[in-house]
Amino acid sequence: SINCLFLGGDSSEVFTVKILETENVSILKRLIKEEQSHRLNHVDASELTAWKVSLPVDTITPELTVDDVEAQKLHPVKKISSIFVEDEVDEHVHILVQAP
Which residue intervals define the domain Crinkler effector protein N-terminal in the entry (predicted)? Predict the structure, then answer.
């Protein structure tokens, strides 16, 4: 499971997506769009930008930007297993999502 948050959101807006390690970032974006379909009604999954982070949930503020944290922009064909090589901390946000 991967904990996700849209940029500009606060800790109460963290959501979890289940994805297989063998799948890629493009599929992750599609799952995020499905999970947040009300918010992303007019956005294609391919338009989303995903950033790998490891942020304690209690440090999240709406003012947070990718410049404030160590964030790695993820390429659509990158495998989940190559992004998350270690076990992720359950109480952290793992992916920041940026919508156009």
Answer: 2-98
Residue with tokens 């959101």: 9
In tens digits, what is the pLDDT along the chain, a chain of 100 residues? 999 999 999 999 999 999 999 999 999 999 999 999 999 999 999 999 999 999 999 999 999 999 999 999 999 999 999 999 877 778 899 999 999 9
Entry pTM: 0.92
| Contacts for 28-31: CB closer than 8 Å, 24+ residues apart | 28/2, 28/74, 28/80, 28/95, 29/76
Domains in the chain, number: 1
